[in-house]
Amino acid sequence: MAALVTEHMKFMYLVFKSQNVVIFNCLVVLGTLGSQQLYSFLAFQCPCAPKRNYLYGLAAIGIPALTLFLVGMLMSNQTWNFVAECRRRGAGNCTIPAIFLLLGCVVGPAMVAPITWSVISLLQGEAYVCALSEFVQSSSLKDFPHQYKPDILAKFPCKTIPVEDVSFKEDVVRKLRYESQFIGWLLLGTVAITVFILKCLKHCCSSLGYQQEEYWSQYRSNESELFKRTAEIHAKMLAAGNIKQFFGFVALDNDEKQLLQEFSTDNVQSTVHWDHITGMHIFRENKGFPIYSRLHKWAMRKSLTDIDPESKETIVLPV
Questions:
Q1: How many CA atoms are closer than 13 Å to the CA of 142, on its beta-carbon side?
Q2: Residues 131-164: b if buried by 16+ CB within 10 A, e if exposed
Q3: Does the chain have fewer CB atoms within 10 Å around its N or its C terminus?
Q4: pLDDT tens digits for 158-173?
Q5: In angstroms, rounded to a whole number, what is the distance separating the alpha carbons of residues 278 and 247?
């Protein structure tokens, strides 16, 4: 029984590892959805005043979406890799399609949360109804009084509407909610079609086979995981060695003492080497051999003297 559970756990780990991007995006969507629902329930209050409604409604849709986009950009490692790439090497070694694809690698993941917020806000319709209630045209509704002015129309999304105008409130709210949900579904469909087309173009423009793309994806994942784990241990051991030199001893637990005995930190890389492995990478080939990352390129240049460091991209696939 224990062996069966262990095998199932290994299988689930492999599934989650192979679909880590999809799962992360799903978690982002669910988190954004929960935040939007909580905001609508606890904080959203239409001011019910001309001009204020419009600003408040648009801000309720746009400002959180912009904030989520900026947070996504700040939290993405790709953003800082792209900045490092532009600062150190510029765009002289990239084709124009490659530059757009690199930008897509940075911007694409950061767009998941703001698009989710905007779509859910539009499907709920509260912010849209609040923003555009004062602009409802009398000709757009049957038997709608012509004498209604913006100061009265602005109160339709709220409970403070005069009793004599309550009979028209449902028609106005229904009309605006219909428009909001239509725009929301249209935005969702546009995003889905755009993502589908971009994925198709990516695979059509790729000179890699499906199996090699899968291998490249696995390599990137493993390299990132191993590099992070190794860098953490190396930094800890280097710090321990320096502290021991300063104090004469260092307080380590048993596992850390074993690591200190097992690994050496004599091989400290120079800043030049760190610069070589930092930045964005587009799949390259040199004399028929694939180069899967900047670290891979650095290792090949270190071991083989005939690798051309200025080789051009052979395809335009983002990392």
A1: 1
A2: bbbbebeeeeeeeeeeebebebbbbbbbeebeee
A3: N
A4: 776 665 556 677 777 8
A5: 34
Segments making up each domain of the chain, as ranges: 23-205, 231-264, 269-319
**pLDDT confidence bin for 174, thresholds 50/70/90:** confident
Number of Cβ within 10 Å of residue 105's Cβ equals: 19
CA distance 24 to 286: 34
Q: With beta carbons less than 8 A apart as the criterion, state whether 23 and 16 touch.
A: yes
Q: What is the DSSP letter of 285?
A: E
Tell me how far the alpha carbon of residue 108 is from its chain's centroid. 6
* Other CB atoms within 10 Å distance of the CB of residue 125: 20
SS3 for 89? coil
> Residue range 242-258: average pLDDT?
87
Task: Tell me the C-alpha distance between 276 and 309, whole Å.
Answer: 10
Structure-block tokens of residue 236: 């800890």
The token pair that represents 197 in the structure block: 């087309």
Look up residue 136 and give its two tokens: 């409802």
Cα–Cα distances in angstroms (integers) from residue 37 to residues 32, 124, 129, 272, in the given order? 9, 9, 16, 49
Short-list 230, 295, 296, 302, CA closest to 264 = 230
Is residue 308 predicted with pLDDT exceeding 50? Answer: no
Token pair recorded at residue 252: 């380590």
Task: Tell me the pTM.
Answer: 0.72
